[in-house]
Every structure is written in C-alpha cells, then in structure tokens.
Design brief:
Blueprint lengths: L2 H8 L4 H11 L1 H39 L2 H4 L1 E6 L7 H7 L2 H14 L12 E5 L4 E2 L14 E6 L3 H4 E6 L14 E7 H7 L6 E4 L7 E11 L5 H4 L8 E5 L6 E10 L15 E6 L11 H13 L1 H10 L4 E3 L2 H44 L1 H9 L4 H30 L6 H23 L21 H24 L8 H4 L1 H16 L1 H12 L5 H10 L7 H35 L3 E4 L9 H9 L5 E12 L10 E8 L1 H11 L13 H6 L6 E6 L1 H7 L4 E5 L2 E10 L11 E5 L10 E5 L5 H11 L4 E4 H6 L5 H31 L1 H13 L4 H34 L6 H5 L17 H28 L2 H4 L7
Parallel strand pairs: 4-10, 6-8, 15-19, 16-18
Antiparallel strand pairs: 1-11, 1-12, 2-11, 3-4, 5-8, 7-8, 9-10, 13-20, 13-21, 14-15, 14-20, 16-19, 17-18
Length: about 950
C-alpha cells in the first residue's frame, strides 16, 4: 500500500482535530454560546409546558370546585312497570340488583370519563316529597313538612353514628312490609326535632301506611364531598317558601335515609319512586387535550350511543343528566379568550431571543473575520469552512439545548413533551444554521483590508428598502386586524400576536435611518469647540458599522415587549381594583341582610373611632316602584332609592370615581320652598339614565317605606357607590319622612377590619362587613388566570434581561477597537478621565436612542393596540359580580416603560466605564502591535 493512499484514507479525520483545537483555543466563547443557547432553549421549552400546566390545573380546578350537583353524572330510571309481576319488581330495586347495574355502568363509561368511585352512590328514592302528618314535627307557617325517603349505598363508609344504631332490615322487605328502619343526619334531627325511636307514617297506595322508625342519627364525614352534596337535602334540611300572593309561608323539606335492602317498601308509595346512580367525575388525571373527547363522550351519554349502552343494563327508560358539559364550555371560553393575549407575550419574547442570538452570532463572526479571511486566501472553500463551523456549533449547541430542555421538563411537570421538544429544536436549528451562514457567507468575495462601512455614510440598498416596506405592510395589517378583531374572540393568529413586535421593528428601522442626521448636526457643533473628546466620541459613534443596527432592533423590540407586558398587568390590576370598588362602593361596607335592617347609632360611633377610618357615609337604601313613563307603557319598574347626606356622599363619589356630582344638586333651594309653602316641596334627585328617562322632566310622586314625596330629576350618573345596579335615584336623606341608616360606606387608607367586625358583631349577628381588599383578592382565583399573569410577568423580566444582554453584546463587539483607540490616544497625552468620557460619550448616542425610542414606541404601541385587546376574561372571570364594562382598555404602565429604558442607559455607561478602567490597567505596548488593523 502506497503512502499516498494511506494519507487519502486518513484525510477525512482532520475535521475532529479542528473542532477540538477550536474548543481548546476559545473555551470562553464556546461556554458563553452554550449558556445563551441553554437559557433560550429552556425558555422555549418552558413556555408551552407552563401553558399546559396552568390549563390542566384550571380544568381540574373548574371541575373539582364546581357544585357536585352540576358536575355529577346522574343516571336515573323510573320504577319497574306495573305490568311486571310484583316479585320481579321488588327484585329489580333490591340492593344486589342496583349494585350489579352500578358495576356495569362504571365498566361501560368511556375511557376519558374517569369516575370517582369513592364518592359514587346509588339507591332508590321517592320522586316527590311526601307530607308528614305527625303533630310533633315543626310547622313554621302551619304547613306540614315534606320528606323524601331514599336508600343510599355504603352509608357507614361516609358517615359516623351520632346516636342509636344503623338502620337495618329484618327479614325480606317487600312492597307490603308495614315497617322499616331509617336514619337522619344530625342537622335534620335538630331542625325537625327527630329523636331515636321517632316514627313517621308514610301513606301508600294500598291504604295501609308504611311506618318508618328512626333508629339512628348520623353525622356526614365529608359534607362537602359529592356523596352528600349532589343532593344536599340528604344531609341538610331546607326551609322553603310556598308561593303565595300574600306574605310568604314557609315549611320544611328533609330526607330520611333507609337501608339499601328496604327499597322494595317504597314501591307501595304514590311518590313516583325511581332508581339512581350518581357518578362524580375524577378530574385529577384530566388534561386540556381531553376536553374535546370528554365533551363528545358526555354528548354521547346524554343522547347517543353511550346512552343506548347504559339503557342496555339499567332499563329502556333510563336517562342521564349532567351539567359537566356546561362547565367544560365555560372553561373552553376562558382558555380561548386568554390564549391570544398570552401568545402576544410569547411572540414578543421569542422575537427578542432570536435577535439576541443573531447578535451573538454576529459578534462571534466578527471576531473570526481575519481568521476566516486567511483561510479563504489560502484556498479554503466556503463549503469546507461552513462545515467546520457547523461542527463547532453542533458540539456546543446540541448539548446545551438538550440540557435546557431537560431542566424545563424537570422543573415544570404535568405537560406534554412534544411542544417543549419543538421549542428546543427550533432554537438549536436557528443557531446551527445561522452561525455557519452568517459567518462564512461574508467571505464569498475578497474584502479590502481596512474597508469601512460607516453608519453616517451608508446608503440603504434596494433589497433593504423592499424588506422594510414589506415589514411595514405586515405591521399595518397586524395592527388593523388586532384593532378590528381583538383578542377577546379567541381567534387570534400569529400575525395578530406579532403586532407589538412588528410595530417595534418598524420603529427601529425608522430610527436607524434617522440616526445619522442628529449625529451630523452634533458633530458640526462640537467640531468648533476646543475640546477633542466630544468630537472624537461623536466621530466614533458615526463610524459604527451600518450593519451593526441589530442591537438597536433588539433593544426596541425588548423594550416594546416589556412595555406591552407591563401594560397588560397594569390593566388587569386596574380592572380588578375598579371591579372591587364597584362591588363594595368604598373601602369597607357595613350592612344588614338585604340592606334593609336599620343600624344603631352606637355602631356608627364605633366605626368612626376604628383605626384607619377617614370618613363614614350614612346611607338609607329603600326600594320604590316607578310610575308609568307617560308613553303608553303601563308596566311598573322597580328602582333603588338611596338616601344620603349630600356633602358626605358627594365626597365619597369623587374619591371612588363612581358617579361624582355636586352636592348642591341634592339640596332643595329656598326659593322653591317659598314658592309653594302649602305644598310638599319637590325634592331634587340624582338618577341613573334609565330612571331619569322613566321619570322625565316633570315632577313625579313616589311612595316608599321612607315616606311619600315628589321628586324631579336634577342630574344623572351612570353608577353610584351605594348600589351596583343600573336603576337608582339618590335623594337627600334629610327630606325623608322616616329616616334611618341601613348601610355604612367607610373610606380610609386601610380600615381596621378586626375593629369593624367587632363593632358589627356588637350591633347584631346579621350585620356583615365587606372589605374592598377582600373583594379584590377574590379575582385571582383560577389557575388559568394565575398562570397567564405569571407568564406575562416572566415576559417582562425576560424582555428586560435580553435587552441588557443586547447592550453587552453591542459593546463587546467594538471592545477591541475601543481598547486600541485608547492605547493610541494615551500615547498622545489622553488622560484616564478623558478616556472614560470618550468611551461613555461614544456609547451614549445609540443607548439614548434605544432608551428614548423604546419608551416612545412602547407607549405608542400600547395606545395603538389598546382598542383591540380585551382583558375581561383574564381579569374578571372569577370574583364577585362587578357590574363593570364589557371591555377593559390597556394603559401604558410608567414603570414598565421607564425602568428597562433607564437600565439600558445605566448599563451602557457602566460597561463603558469598566472598559476604560480595564484598558488603563493594560500597557500600550500590549495593544499596539505592528500590522494591527484595529
């Protein structure tokens, strides 16, 4: 074998030493690139996992927190037909038969409908309540209480025996059995005065009553669980009102629990008994990807093949009812409303991260320009150089991206894997493709040594102009689409989500084109001065490479994204504060049931003395019936009458921003009183628009519990602190015949809640205290809301971090030239102080341009896109009824605008100062070498 063939066989192995040599020669660069890729890959992998996690938690929360009566799947079937022989009817409702059907039903449920078997229940109960005639039962309005009778499976597993013994059957129970045992809960026994040994007579169709003997009183172990809460009457009796035209009349309804084998005895009653199987869903294994399948399965069970399968085991007349599909619909609506808003943050941070990665690639390519030019001059091909660069990049990037993906998977669980893998792979592909291309392609043709591409002398090419115009068209289209369609419809696409990024990008391109003009003007004015530092700094700033505009793009996009994210969070906070203020009307609200119970004067004095109380508005709330409106519509309309002290209430309305008005408008003028001394004076009122339209311009007579009076509308307000409704009128309380205080509206920085509740408790057990701060906290209730807010907070932090990183990269790109410049100027007598000023002034133009431009563009972007962004679902989908507007407009948050911009300027100055100090420590001989092109 010849020596030449041996060399040819070993030639391909030269690539490995190249990679090892490069990694050993520049380990810091490799580590820095790997760290940046790791961080970016982590964010790209963590975002979809965070969205999945909060959506999964929100789904489980909505199902678990819903009323069990809504989320449960209840299968019911009427009693067997009367044509069926009686023994077969009794066997069909026996405990063994119901248990067999229960097991068959569980096995036939679709896979996505996972039952909570621990809280499932089945049995046989009376379809209609049966009046109880026993004289010892309580009758609040002389109406017999009504009782339902039900067998319930596994009762000893879900309750403890409080008194007596567990009910049981003795022998075989049939429809003709004269007596069975039963049990009631502790609450039922207390309300209906039932004791162990009490008997209740149940009428039957045969005439011989069925006697139910109470042998036990039980206490539910988990009263709020589905076993007891699907039908709350099983554990808690209810006092209900019987519909009447006069005063409401109340009576008790309750439930008596029978042993499972006593079900045949209920066949003798005329209360339409039926069998039931209650299956609550287990939400713990559900994910957002199961929603579509779950909704389809529920529809099938309610009226499709699933119901046919259930009827095959439970009976032909079986029906399945549930409101779980309604819960899923509300969840889907919330998720689809929040998704586009969150996508805006994701696209913004993704764009900033991509620009910073490209800046890093440009910095690495610039540092290796001379090396690659030498390789080209010695015969290196672009393909060979690109392949070696790709090998270097893959060795560094792939492990870093894999580690970032692993950290995201470990730290954020309960999410799908493939979206995270896609994000990490996208980051890896971007770096592995962009770095070889951006580094090798500039060496297609030989470049003159020392050729400059100054920013002030550069002329944009036609390709750049076409690209900028294309971006301008996309930005205009995205903004118009977002303003017209908005994000509240849940139909946002990528173009709409990229609107803030595109606006920031267009602004950056405009600023880059305008930057040479102020530099030229400043250079001319400074050139006439004696000092050389100012002229040199502006000259150096103007000699910045025209291709180095990427840092400005990164800064503006990052600052715009941070400002938009801060505006979203500020809008959410403002909306919740406003909704809480509308719900309470002040910082604290003290009232009795229905705002109709008079409050004692002692309570008012104690409230005024409580800590943190600045003012107390005494309000009398009554209800009036408005007369016909005079247009032929004779229908009556109810409104809320609010009696107030004009001066105090006007101050409260101004402080809360809820319908401010001049206090003098509620005071009847002296001239009006003298003009009609023998008549009742006409009281001026402030009314809501609907009430003002009803009353018209003339005086109208009204009658209320507070007295009879004549009113005339003196002004209108759309809302008022005392009530949250839209139909109200405000009157001076001093003009009312029967004056009393029913509500106290307290204002102050932070009223002492404990002192207010103590004073209210002394006034009566029904007097309640509601705080605005507590109402505000009720809006952060669901996992979807909390997750979306955390993502936006992370977007602000990541945007600010990438902006600062962009500043560092831009300064590091020109660090060698600045160091060499200082070394030369020091040989000419430049002092250290002048060197620091020179570097600082050189870096300031672009830093100030980015800071001021980012601040203005962030504000303009928020104002421009505000009409199309609806934050109602994100801010107010949980919490008390606010009565707020249908939309919540964005507003520019000053802190999110100014802090990142100031951080850019401060960091630029700090880096320039550190660079000048470091350059001063190194000798000029180290920096000045013969043939150095810097």
């Amino acid at each position: 074998m010849s020596a030449r063939s041996v060399r040819d066989r070993r030639a391909p192995a030269a690539c490995a030493p190249w990679v090892r040599t490069r990694l050993r020669t520049a380990p810091g660069t490799a580590w820095a690139l790997g760290l940046l890729v790791l961080l970016t890959a982590f964010l790209a992998a963590a975002f979809p996992r965070a969205v999945d996690r909060y959506e999964n938690e929100g789904l489980r929360h909505d199902i678990a927190a819903a009323d069990p009566g809504l989320s449960v799947l209840e299968l019911s079937t009427p009693q067997p037909d009367l044509q069926v022989p009686q023994p077969l009817r009794e066997e069909a409702v026996s405990a063994a038969s119901l248990a067999s059907v229960h097991r068959a039903v569980l096995s036939r449920l679709p896979d996505v409908v996972r039952p909570d078997t621990a809280q499932s229940a089945y049995g046989f109960h009376t379809g209609k309540p049966i009046p109880a005639r026993e004289g010892w039962l309580p009758r609040p309005s002389l109406i017999d209480p009504e009782l339902t009778y039900s067998t319930l499976s596994d009762l000893p597993d879900h309750a403890t025996l409080h008194a007596g013994t567990w009910p049981a059957v003795h022998g075989t129970v049939t429809a003709g059995t004269p007596e069975v045992e039963g049990a009631v809960t502790e609450e039922t026994a207390k309300a209906l005065r039932i004791t162990v040994g009490s008997t209740i007579s149940v009428p039957t169709q045969g005439g011989t009553p069925l006697t139910v003997r109470i042998t036990g009183i039980v206490t539910p172990e988990r009263p709020a669980a589905a076993y007891w809460s699907v039908q709350p009457l099983l554990r808690t009796p209810s006092l209900v009102a019987k519909p009447t035209r006069d005063i409401p009349r109340y009576y008790w309804i309750a439930a008596v629990l029978l042993p499972p084998d006593a079900a045949p005895a209920l066949l003798a009653t005329a209360s339409q008994p039926e069998a039931f199987w209650r299956i609550p869903p287990d939400a713990s294994p559900l994910t957002v990807t199961d929603v579509a399948a779950l909704r389809s399965s529920i529809a099938s069970l309610e009226g499709g093949p699933g119901l046919v399968s259930m009827r095959a085991v439970a009976g032909t007349n079986t029906a399945l009812t549930t409101d779980l599909d309604a819960i899923l619909t509300r969840y889907d609506s919330l998720r689809q409303a929040i998704g586009p808003v969150v996508m805006v943050a994701a696209v913004g941070i993704g764009a900033v991260a991509a620009v910073v990665l490209l800046m890093t690639i440009g910095l690495m390519g610039g540092r290796r320009r001379s090396e690659l030019a030498l390789l080209r001059s010695r015969g290196g091909s672009l393909r060979g150089i690109g392949g070696r660069l790709l090998a270097e990049t893959v060795v560094t990037t792939v492990p870093a991206a894999a580690l970032g993906l692993l950290i995201a998977v470990v730290t954020i669980g309960d999410a799908r894997l493939w979206p995270s893998v896609t994000g990490a792979v996208a980051v890896t592909v971007l770096v592995c493709v962009a770095l070889p291309l951006c580094t090798a392609l500039p060496h297609r043709r030989p470049r003159l040594h020392g050729a400059r591409d100054d920013l002030m002398d550069a002329r944009p090419s036609r390709w750049r102009t076409v690209a900028e115009l294309t971006l301008l068209v996309l930005a205009v289209g995205a903004v118009v689409a977002l303003r017209r369609r908005g994000t509240g419809s849940g139909g946002g696409d990528l173009l709409v989500s990229a609107a803030p990024v595109l606006v920031g990008l267009i602004a950056a391109l405009v600023l880059v084109r305008l930057l040479p003009l102020p530099l030229r003007l400043a250079s001319r004015s400074v050139a006439r001065r004696r000092g050389a530092v100012g002229f040199l700094s502006l000259a150096r700033a103007g000699r910045t490479s025209a291709g180095g505009t990427l840092p400005l793009l990164a800064l503006l996009i990052a600052l715009t994204t941070a400002a938009f994210g801060g505006s979203v969070l500020a809008g959410i906070a403002d909306a919740r504060d406003d909704a809480a203020g509308r719900a309470i009307g002040a910082d604290a609200r003290i009232s009795g049931p229905g705002n109709s119970v008079p409050l004692p004067d002692r309570l008012i004095r104690e409230v005024r003395k409580a800590g943190g109380v600045r003012d107390v508005a005494r309000v009398q709330i009554e209800y009036v019936v408005l007369p016909a409106d005079g247009t032929g519509d004779q229908r009556t309309k109810d409104a809320t009458l609010v009696g107030v002290d004009p001066a105090t209430y006007a101050r409260l309305a101004r402080a809360t921003g809820l319908g401010a008005f001049p206090a003098d408008r509620l005071r009847a003028s002296a001239a009006a009183k003298k003009s009609a001394p023998t008549k009742d004076p006409v009281l001026p009122v402030i009314a809501s628009p609907s009430v003002a339209e009803r009353l018209g311009d003339r005086a109208r007579d009204l009658s209320a519990a507070a007295g009879n009076f004549t009113v005339r509308v003196a002004g209108t307000v759309t809302r008022t602190p005392a009530v949250s409704g839209s139909d109200f009128l405000i009157v001076d309380a001093a003009s009312l015949t029967r004056r009393q205080t029913t509500t106290l509206l307290v204002t102050g920085g932070s009223p002492d809640a404990k002192a207010l509740r103590t004073a209210a408790h002394h006034a009566g057990k029904d007097v309640s205290v509601r705080l605005r701060s507590e109402a505000r906290e009720a809006f952060v209730d669901t996992s979807v809301q909390r997750g979306a807010e955390k993502i936006y907070a992370a977007a602000i932090a990541a945007g600010a971090g990438y902006a600062l990183l962009a500043v560092l990269l831009s300064l590091l790109q020109t660090a060698p030239e600045r160091t060499a410049l200082l070394a030369r100027l020091r040989t000419m007598g430049l002092t250290s102080r002048q060197g620091r000023r020179l570097l600082g002034l050189e870096a300031m133009p672009q830093a100030l341009l980015a800071a001021v431009g980012g601040l203005l563009v962030g504000w303009a972007t928020t104002a421009l896109l505000a009409p199309g962004v609806d934050l109602v679902s994100l801010a107010l989908s949980a919490g008390p009824e606010s009565g707020g507007d249908d939309t919540i407009a964005l507003r520019a948050d000053p802190w999110s605008l100014t802090l990142p911009a100031l951080g850019v300027v401060v960091l630029t100055a700090a880096v320039a100062a550190v660079q000048a100090w470091w350059a001063g420590r190194r000798g000029s001989i180290t920096e000045l070498r013969a043939g150095d092109p810097r």
